[in-house]
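Hi Q.,

Before the meeting this afternoon, I wanted you to have the zinc ion prediction in hand. No need to reply - just skim if you have a minute. The sequence and ligand are here:
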Amino acid sequence: MTAAKQTHLYGREVLRSEFSQPIIDGSNLLKTSGFYIKNGKERCRRCNHPIVPIPFNQCTCDKECSYCTNCLQLGKVKSCSMFFHIPEPNEFKKVPEPILHWKGKLSAQQEAAAQELIQSIDHCETRLLWAVAGAGKTEMLFPGIERAIRQNKRICLASPRVDVCLELAPRIQQAFPDVPISVLYGDMEEPYTYAQLTVATTHQLYRFKEAFDLLIIDEIDAFPYRMDKALQYAAEKSRKSVSTLIFLTATPDQTYQKRIEKKQLKASILPARYHGFALPVPKNVREKNWQKALLHHFPNTKLFKQMQQLFKSQKKFLLFAPNIDWMTAFSEVIKTHFETAHFEAVHSQDPERKAKVLSMRNEELDFLVCTTILERGVTFPNIDVLVIGSDDRIFTESALVQIAGRAGRSPQYPTGNVLFYHDGLTKEIKKAIRQIKKMNEIAKKRGLLNS
Ligand SMILES: [Zn+2]
Ligand SMILES: [Zn+2]
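Predicted structure with the ligand bound:
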């Protein structure tokens, strides 16, 4: 291997411990210290976190050494650490035409957004794609990605969640069969490879420096990206200073919504679902003192009557609950009153999570009780959605919009009821309903709705 071909360092910023290949000194290899100084304070070069000096005596450097506690999971960055980097040369094999092999058809609104995306790629802009759940955002990206590939740009599609990456990668590969794709996430077993197109969790962006000409970040409203300043720093660090940044979301938070209103952020809004039916607007149901009432007087509650009606008419439904403990207790109560019903309760720490979701998808269950883990990503064809305790703090505007977006997804069953059970309206409930209504209004105005 010659120094000029250390492709695994192209656009990367990594510690020696982060890869197994040898390093050969060469004119293009850059080495930097683990920390840097900003306004007189030491910060971690990988995550920008301020360094709090901790006595650390086991270091092989035998000097006064400290380390960054913020990004430990990626390997320790110490005072004596060294980062390796080779500036991104965009050394890709020319992709034969046609680059895009996808044969589907974009809807009118997808086509319009795809064109705006191409504009932003040509002009190296930042743009937010606000696409409601069910609008078909992945396909809409294809023409833009094709453009960027043709321009020999390096592209990354990042998502906060590994499940999304694993679902996305094969779809992208199918659409672009001649483009090498590198899929990066925490527990991956394959070694890192240099590729024109990368699909990665947002955490992997820490390992890049000025690599991407086009960075697309999916689900910016999702944990942990939304709250994590270090991750946002990593995203900025990973792209070139002149590059295109695309945010994807179904429910931007108030900060983004305000920036769009003030025209500080370019946005493409896709207010309609692919099938052209309006988003179901949630209805509010007052369930007084629901925490206790549902556990102790379940047959007297409005929720009970609704569940009974759905069960009798064999309509499937998802029942969202605010937390695992309460949900577990409530599941026991449900069992005693719905003895013949087939249902499961599922949460993030549930080892049988995948199997339970699958049996709901295969229509083997009458209903599925769950926490917010099912708020996004999952699609069941013909369901109603009930949210218990929608006044709980866990149910933010964006969570509630996502949850409501589970109903009416399929073209065969484009409608569905969404019911919010609570003991008083919260700001988040009001904002969520307002957001859904607003999307429906925009869709109607643009003539995108069937009815
Ligand atoms: Zn750090
Ligand atoms: Zn040291």
